[in-house]
């Protein structure tokens, strides 16, 4: 087996919050294929696109112009929605099934609650800017972002340790496969937007690290890149 290459040098979207180190570079696994071996790795890939979206907000907040404000706010709201959606799917489907199978998820749930209020405050501010109730303020945007992103990113790193193969191998394979199937069905039922959510994910995801994620057919990727993403471009 070839020795995995080292992580590449960090670009600006990898600061101020550091992405999670993946099990290999590139990461080619899929929890649908083998949940024991790859759940932690694929979850790290998902967490990394969230972290990079937060970094993009931090990096760009001070330079947003009046003409860019609504587009920037829309991006920020997509980032918040991604966190809501991801954690709802965990709390509704993944955590209960893993807890019932003997894999403790209490710490993860507690860490979710640690940033809830601050994220709601950030979302409220964004919606006030969107409606014109308040003016956009780059410094305030950063301040509100940090208040929830610090505990959120801490959690995103910590959660990976609870999904390692040595813990999941104690769980019945049928239970894990059903968990993954239910997660996928839940995500599909939410209907991620071809002109909003999917372009957002692909923009925040570093494809060189995990070229097979997200599991979207290549023709759909092409349409997102060449057509759908342009709906929101200037």
What is the strand and helix layout of this fold?
Blueprint: H1 35-60, H2 69-100, H3 106-131, H4 138-161, H5 165-168, H6 173-190, H7 197-204, H8 218-226
Q: How would you summarize what this structure contains?
A:
The protein has 234 residues and is mainly α. Helices cover 63% and strands 0% of the residues.
Order of helix and strand elements from N to C terminus: HHHHHHHH
How helix-rich are the residues, as a percent range? 55-70%
> What is the rounded Rg?
18 Å
| Share of residues in strands | under 5%
Shape: globular
How would you classify the helix and strand content by structural class?
mainly alpha
Task: Give an account of the 3D structure.
The chain has 234 residues and is an all-alpha fold. It is built from eight helices and no strands. The chain has helices spanning 35-60, 69-100, 106-131, 138-161, 165-168, 173-190, 197-204, 218-226. The chain is globular, with a radius of gyration of 18 Å.
Which features does this protein show?
single chain, about 230 residues, mainly alpha, 8 helices, disordered N terminus
């Amino acid at each position: 087996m070839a020795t995995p290459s080292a992580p590449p040098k960090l670009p600006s979207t990898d600061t101020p919050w550091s992405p999670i180190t993946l099990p290999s570079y590139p990461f080619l696994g899929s929890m649908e294929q083998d949940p024991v071996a790859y759940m932690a790795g694929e979850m790290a890939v998902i967490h990394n696109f969230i972290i990079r979206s937060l970094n993009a907000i931090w990096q760009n907040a001070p330079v947003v112009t009046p003409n860019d404000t609504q587009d920037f706010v829309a991006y920020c709201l997509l980032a918040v929605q991604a966190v809501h959606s991801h954690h709802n799917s965990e709390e509704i489907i993944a955590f209960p099934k893993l807890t019932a199978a003997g894999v403790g998820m209490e710490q993860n749930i507690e860490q979710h609650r640690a940033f809830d209020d601050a994220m709601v405050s950030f979302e409220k501010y964004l919606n006030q800017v969107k409606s014109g109730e308040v003016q956009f303020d780059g410094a305030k945007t950063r301040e509100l972002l940090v208040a929830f992103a610090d505990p959120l990113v801490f959690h995103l790193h910590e959660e990976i340790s609870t999904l390692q193969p040595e813990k999941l191998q104690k769980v019945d394979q049928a239970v894990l496969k059903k968990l993954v199937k239910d997660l996928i069905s839940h995500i599909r039922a939410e209907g991620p937007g071809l002109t909003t959510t999917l372009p957002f994910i692909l923009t925040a995801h570093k494809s060189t690290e995990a070229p097979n994620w997200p599991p979207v057919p290549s023709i759909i990727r092409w349409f997102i890149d060449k057509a759908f993403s342009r709906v929101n471009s200037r």
